[in-house]
């Protein structure tokens, strides 16, 4: 049953099936069981103590004096606040989240970004640091040159600033936000990425950057040192997207100037595949686990493409079950 | 033009021209961050050879110096007196930014000041906006005037302004030492964008350089300091002794202190006053306010004199709102204005009041004010309606008010000088006691004296009503300005906001704080201190140290046990019946020259005769409720004393042993200084006034003493005579006996020089403990300051579910992030406990008023039952939050934390939310109009924050309710627009 819930679709042999089932059962037995009864579907009544003030949060509504769920998910309670956390849904932004998005439109003084939310997010020109690093008001010239910063289909990393009257606004506080180049964008279900203190990671041993966007967009790319020298970035501006297909403005000269080494590219793919495996299995995606999988694949001398095979997938599930149970024992 | 100065950053470059008087000097420093490389290319703005703004007058050296720094695009800190003209620098910075198409922010500590500055800048530049908690005007303007709090929260929210602002002007930056709000300046400065430049305007602070060093370090950019003591109009300082009728010049315009004149002033203090003044120290001001019956009060005389000598306009500073009003009332008979002026005043006043509704115009404060104003007399304090305050400011600037009674708040901000400044008091109540005005405060307030270009010199008059030491006076009048010291402290809102940012880290903020910077500076000094102390300790060598130490410990033990016994025996409960007149008691003499406590008590004892005893009146009012056993007592004892008079005639009395030279005197000593009570009583003559009688009595005491000789006087036996039966007494006395046995056996006790040796040892031990304590301070300052507190506070946030152990902010934490104008934890808890959900809107508003009201009111009426019930819920929540903080090792006094929420204005706010008129709610409560208005405005701020918070948790009903609350309280006079807008 577990297999179906997770929706894992892999061509498995009989033994693999048994092994996977066993691992998943173990994992389930390890998980906390508090929320088993708390899952609701739309129009389910949520039992509350009406004696004292109940705060009805997201995903709830008042119907004839009863609190009912308006989405499918898990009931969460914080003191007197009751809300429903959706299980698999689009991304629901919160202020301060790190997200990755793809530019869908360059509009007046703003870019519109697809971030897997029910509407496009807005990144104002004024919410970006200027490429020259000067603190000044944005001029009409800046507006005309907006495509020099981001154009359609660029992948951009930003922080959720909050809801304004005209929708969800993003901002780029510092240098480390901005356009992402030379890497891969992966999309997973947002629930797999948990909010953490750090979403930017630098895997030094592989020379790659990993950005876990809260909206389920994950970036794996070549490591770029965040420099204060803003001008340099502008040169890299129109760099070839070596590993991202669908980028057509590639000039040979530039390609030569900044070349991502084969080794780094391999690591990028390895990390990306590790994330794909986790996504297939429906496991939480964290730096620690991704590193574990990369190490596992390396120690097995596995080819990159083999990482997506059933055997490795089952192995990862087993390892994860093992890891969690040993963690639990330690506690 | 400034490039020459840039090459010699270390040496101060005096810029006074030969024609300028020496006072004109300004000092210029530059602080560079470590490893700073000068930009090789000249600053980009060389293209602008034209200054961004021209002034119609010649700039003072410090002004042109500061402007040079601005033109070079480098930060500058300007430290000068209020009247010196710092605003010129701010104006230039704004003009320059506008020219370069950059944004500029001007922050000030007070909303009212922001309004005034907005007005001033708007007239000058037009592209100006204003953002305070109350109003927002044109937030897209290039120059934004705002309060520092708004700027702080803008930076946390990541407003786009943070990316466009090139220059940030912090006015009155010395507010950073404010205990409560100072931290906001530090946060704002640390968080400010790295590429922006700063202009800091400050009163004179001696450590301006230190501040600049800090800014240079935090922002990795050079920061200039321009410091000047210069006053455009020199000051004369006078003293007016109360009861007297003349002024005494104590400091002339050259800054010389005249000792003789000061002495004369003190002698002119009416001596009759001295006696009763001393008795009712707490009610000192009475004499000032009421005056002698049938006579003109001092203040009246003073104003009359000032007017006669044409020293007006005058500002009279006092330190409480009530006193301010009372003093103004004394001026009833005085009229300082002509008919034309009266008409003018009436016209200005009535047109200003036109915006009020008819009901509000009838407010007593409004209707009582006009007659006073027409006579040229004004009052200015924070208890006034904001609109009245502004009218008075305008009238004063127009010169229509000749005599203004103001509180300290009038001394900061806009240029509103007078010819004369009077201090009606030299002491100020600072929360727990009356203290002398500090020199810094004196400088700030006296800065209002002397109008530039009108008066040749300003006059400062100090009304003195009690003897003060010349050194105190000198220090007050001529002392240095207060240092700018960090008042950094942690708040939960700060920690949560930092944790919420991906690259925010509260520890980073701590590391960059001015507090840390100052602490780091102290380290080399402390290390030196430790070294010196250690050397001194090593130099002391003692033979047989171990066994001596052993003996010393025994002595210490013996001493503490004796003390224990003494405390029991001499507790008022036991000893009062025995303190009859004539009883012989032994008293401790204060040790003469040694700072070390004596080793043998016997050395320090003398004898005396009890004459009487009485109870000490404690400061608190509930004196009657204290049981007689618990009160403290003073005993009048006849013994030998030495009386010394110091230069200014202040007496000091010291008890000396009987055989030494001195006068026989009756002195009053606290019960705790009596050591033992003898069982003997001597006869005392009825009249002790003649010296002879006292001398004879003391002779008798000496005779008695010698009669008993070696054995000493027989003492009252605690058990048999005094009937003390407590077990602790018995235990202690048994242990003393055992210890005394040990003394006998101790080998070293017989050593000849034992006393001297013990003294040396004591000194050595003293040094050891001193080293220990210095090392402790060293440790705490080299470690990250506040690190432990941060840990404790994070613990609290975890326990309450605001953040996880991985420092990820949770739902509740996000709500608390939004609340910055009230106690974030208590309010968030209250909200999540559903308290705000079920109550009526008016009740909710009334409850929230407890979060914003801070003034203390004695015997304020209790609110009605349903409100009181709510208040109790609030107190419970607060107590829980406080208790939890205590458990998490945050240093907090739970009860005073709970008491910081005050129900005093609940009724009034309830009525206001119900739609009552303002005069109606003023009848309910006794608070000042202005204070209530401020509280309601702040309440609206809190409600706006709560709307945001409710939005973030998706509670639409609650959000609507907060919105409704805002619309209910935001009306009429309370939110009447400022006249400056």
UniProtKB/TrEMBL annotation, chain A:
Keyword rRNA processing: yes
Cellular compartments annotated: Nucleus
InterPro entries in the cross-refs: Exosome_RNA_bind1/RRP40/RRP4 (IPR026699), KH_dom_type_1 (IPR004088), KH_dom_type_1_sf (IPR036612), NA-bd_OB-fold (IPR012340), S1_domain (IPR003029), S1_RRP4 (IPR048565)
Pfam annotation, one family: KH_6
Keyword set, alphabetical order: Exosome, Nucleus, RNA-binding, rRNA processing
Record family assignment: Belongs to the RRP4 family.
Protein name: S1 motif domain-containing protein
Lineage per the UniProt record: Eukaryota, Viridiplantae, Streptophyta, Embryophyta, Tracheophyta
TrEMBL record, chain B:
A GO cellular component entry from the record: nucleoplasm
Biased composition (Low complexity): 13-22
Domain Helicase C-terminal positions: 298-499
GO MF: ATP binding; hydrolase activity; RNA helicase activity
Top-level taxon: Eukaryota
Family: Belongs to the DExH box helicase family. SKI2 subfamily.
Descriptive protein name: RNA helicase
Organism: Flemingia macrophylla
Source organism phylogeny: Eukaryota, Viridiplantae, Streptophyta, Embryophyta, Tracheophyta
